[in-house]
Each structure stands twice: as C-alpha cells, then as structure tokens.
Specification:
Layout (H helix, E strand, L loop, with lengths): L2 H13 L7 E4 L4 H13 L6 E5 L6 H10 L2 E3 L5 H8 L6 H11 L5 H8 L13 H8 L9 H18 L2 E3 L8 H6 L18 H10 L27 H7 L3 H10 L1 H7 L11
Helix pairs in contact: 1-10, 4-8, 5-6
C-alpha cells in the first residue's frame, strides 16, 4: 500500500470514531478544507456531515465562489471589518504576538505579559516572545492599535453561534505543520473543546500527492499564493503571500485592503504594488 493510500485509510478510521450527524465541516474554500470536503463527499460518500462556510467578504472571489458552490449553509459575521478595526485595532505581526500587544495596549502589565514582551521568560530561550521591532515600537508608544480580534469576530464567533444553534461540533482542516503554534496546539484528532482535527498529522507531500492522484480541484489563485485567507492579511507577509495577494486583487478590493491594513503595512514595510486590474 502506498503512503497516500495508507493515509486515506487511516483518515477513514479516524472518521469512524465520530457520530457524523453531530459534526459539520468548517469549509473555508482553501486547500485543506476542500481536501476534507472531497474526502467526506467522494471518498466516504457521506451525506450526514453538513458543510458550513462563513463568508466574511474578505475572501478572494475564487474562494467565495467555492463556498457558494459547495457549502450547505453560509453564515456571516455580526461585525464588519472596519467596525472591528475601530473598536479593537488591526492585525500586524502574528496572532500570538498581537494578542499580547493588545493586552499591553489595553493596560495590562502582568509579570507574565511583560516577560513575553521583554523576552525574559526562561532567560529568553523561548519561541513565544515579541519580536524586536514590535517590542521597540510598543514600548516607545509608536505602535498603532494592534489586535488579533479580526480573526475572532470575522470567523470564530460566527461558527460559535452556529454551533450553539445547531448543537454540532466542528471538523477543522488545520494541520500542525502550518505554524509553530499549531504544532503545539494540535497533537491529536480531538482538542479539549471537542472539535475534530483529523488532518493534524498530514504533511504537504502526502496532501499534494493525493490532490494529484485523484485530480482534486485547485483554484487558479494557488498558482500565485501558497495559502488563502482574508485578502491581504498581514499575517501572510512572512510567507510572501501578502504582496502576491495584492497583485491579484481588483481595484476596489485593492483600495479597501490598502486602507484597512494601512498602518500594519507601514510597520511591516509592505509597499505599493501594481495590481492586474490596474495594468
């Protein structure tokens, strides 16, 4: 049995541990969640697991169209992006760092927080600390209002409300290979709140092989970016995706994103780019 065949059978056994009628697939339209969609609908031939998407209106057009095509239910956030920015601030460095910055800017000076900010926890021998640029700007009061709440209100909160109404738990297409934080968070199929994360151990190599062997649909945007999410999100800058995303936006999208993330782009050095629609 080949590696990808073994993985698919192992994944099938993982799904055998849940009551399919009590779970839904959180479908973002991205590569990982669409693999799960394919696995559920084509490999398992399952009709009990509901496919649910949240349209934040910050997704690329190709991704929105996938949601409309494949989701059984489409939900929406209760707050708009500009409302979130005005109330909480905007994303900049990373989810974890922005969470700590947000706490500091709201007035917290707890010992654990200051250890994180100053990089003194465990004598500085930790990956979970504020980077030098963020620390210098924050402590000199030169940093704009920063927060990771954008992700929460645009994505997490709507799904929480849906789960409360439906009494179902989420199947998430998250993988531990995607970030250091996720590697620490996802070490098993089930996390503490009951969400099902069956892809936690899936590697890029096996995923790509399955996509190729079974000819699973991949949107053209993946020819330009390695992952999709909210258009132009600063969190993609470390992968080089933010600049790549800006180049494929239409003029209206580009102008909105440049305005919405303006302060974070300035801090991160993300400059103006020429969009395809502008050429």
């Amino acid at each position: 049995m080949k590696d990808y065949e073994f993985y698919l059978e192992d994944l099938k056994s993982k799904f055998g541990k849940i009551d399919h009628k009590k779970y839904y697939l959180s479908y973002s339209g991205g590569k990982d969640s669409h693999f799960l969609y394919w696995f559920i609908k084509e490999y398992l031939k399952d009709h009990d697991i509901e496919i649910v998407s949240c349209n934040t209106f910050m997704e690329h057009n190709q991704i929105q169209k996938r949601m409309e095509r494949y989701a059984d239910v489409i939900i929406h956030p209760s707050m708009k992006p500009l409302e979130i920015k005005e109330k909480h601030g905007s994303p900049c460095f990373s989810k974890m760092q922005d969470e700590m910055i947000d706490r500091y800017q709201r007035g917290s000076r707890s010992p654990s927080l200051m250890q994180f900010i100053n990089g003194t926890k465990n004598n500085g021998n930790t990956m979970f600390k504020l980077n030098k640029q963020a620390r210098e700007l924050l402590l000199s009061d030169r940093l704009h209002r920063v927060s990771n709440k954008c992700c929460y209100y645009l994505k997490k909160e709507p799904f929480k409300k849906y789960e409360h109404i439906s009494c179902k738990k989420a199947i998430l297409g998250v993988r531990s290979t995607e970030s250091i934080l996720r590697k620490a968070q996802y070490t098993t199929c089930f996390n503490k709140n009951g969400k099902f994360t069956p892809l936690f151990d899936l590697t890029d190599e096996i995923l790509d092989h399955i996509y190729e062997v079974y000819n699973i649909e991949i949107p053209p945007i993946y020819n330009m970016v390695s992952r999709t999410g909210c258009m132009g999100c600063p969190y993609g800058s470390k992968f080089g995706d933010t600049i790549a995303e800006l180049r494929v936006l239409n003029k209206n999208q580009y102008n909105f994103v440049r305005s919405y993330f303006k302060e974070s782009y300035q801090v991160l050095g993300i400059s103006e780019v020429q969009t395809k629609m502008d050429i």
